Automatic annotation (TrEMBL):
<dbReference type="InterPro" id="IPR001253">
    <property type="entry name" value="TIF_eIF-1A"/>
</dbReference>
<feature type="domain" description="S1-like">
    <location>
        <begin position="64"/>
        <end position="138"/>
    </location>
</feature>
<dbReference type="GO" id="GO:0003743">
    <property type="term" value="F:translation initiation factor activity"/>
</dbReference>
<keyword id="KW-0648">Protein biosynthesis</keyword>
<feature type="compositionally biased region" description="Basic residues">
    <location>
        <begin position="46"/>
        <end position="57"/>
    </location>
</feature>
<keyword id="KW-0396">Initiation factor</keyword>
<feature type="compositionally biased region" description="Polar residues">
    <location>
        <begin position="30"/>
        <end position="41"/>
    </location>
</feature>
<dbReference type="InterPro" id="IPR006196">
    <property type="entry name" value="RNA-binding_domain_S1_IF1"/>
</dbReference>
<dbReference type="GO" id="GO:0003723">
    <property type="term" value="F:RNA binding"/>
</dbReference>
<dbReference type="InterPro" id="IPR012340">
    <property type="entry name" value="NA-bd_OB-fold"/>
</dbReference>
<comment type="similarity">
    <text>Belongs to the eIF-1A family.</text>
</comment>
<dbReference type="InterPro" id="IPR018104">
    <property type="entry name" value="TIF_eIF-1A_CS"/>
</dbReference>
<dbReference type="Pfam" id="PF01176">
    <property type="entry name" value="eIF-1a"/>
</dbReference>
<protein>
    <recommendedName>
        <fullName>Eukaryotic translation initiation factor 4C</fullName>
    </recommendedName>
</protein>
<comment type="function">
    <text>Seems to be required for maximal rate of protein biosynthesis. Enhances ribosome dissociation into subunits and stabilizes the binding of the initiator Met-tRNA(I) to 40 S ribosomal subunits.</text>
</comment>
<feature type="region of interest" description="Disordered">
    <location>
        <begin position="1"/>
        <end position="66"/>
    </location>
</feature>
Length: 187
């Protein structure tokens, strides 16, 4: 690094000889750090956290038991049929209505909802086919709701796929094709 003396204008020509050897620095000499005027730049502290990945490991306090929340007026239990993206899901409510549910901002990217989960939704007065997700029940809480009689006995829990709420789809879980010997011989 080239260190230059600060640029000073002098009245006498005697100083011009000593300044001529530093003329390669030009007018930039005043902007560079000098030995007389040392300035230090304070860099921000490195906190050791980078990006959004640090937000992922904060759910350590979920081990403790929370109070079981029952439905109130204007609310209904539902089972998620499928996730639609953009903070929305399709859910079958216990009253038999399929509704488009919106995941509220407090739960978005903090509480992960998957198909087959039991949720508590708030019904809308002005749109019967839409609802808002209020709470996601943990698997043990969903079993307690079923034991208390809040959920019907036909509700299948923790199977990853929603179903069991429709009585007409009773045999939907065992769909398969059975070939007989005659069909195999034709092939």
């Amino acid at each position: 690094m080239i260190r230059c003396k600060p640029f000073q204008q002098s009245d006498s020509d005697s100083d011009s000889d000593s300044h001529s050897e530093d003329s390669s620095c030009g007018n930039m000499a005043g902007t560079l750090t000098t030995q007389e005027n040392t300035t230090s730049v304070v860099m921000p502290k490195n906190k050791g956290k980078g990006g959004k990945n640090r937000k992922r490991g904060k759910n350590e306090a979920d081990d403790e038991k929370r109070e079981l929340v029952f439905k109130e007026d204007g609310q209904e239990y539902a089972q998620v049929l499928r996730m639609l993206g953009n903070g929305r899901c399709e859910a079958m409510c216990i009253d038999g209505t399929k509704r488009l549910c919106h995941i509220r901002g407090k739960m978005h990217k903090k509480v992960w909802i998957a198909a087959g989960d039991i949720i508590l939704v708030g019904l809308r007065d002005y749109q019967d086919d839409k609802a808002d997700v209020i709470l996601k029940y943990m698997p043990d809480e969903a079993r307690l709701l079923k034991a208390y009689g809040e959920l019907p006995e036909s509700t299948r829990l923790n199977e990853g796929i929603a179903g069991g709420l429709d009585e007409e789809d009773e045999g939907a879980g065992d769909d398969y094709i059975e070939f007989e010997d005659e069909d195999i011989d034709k092939i």
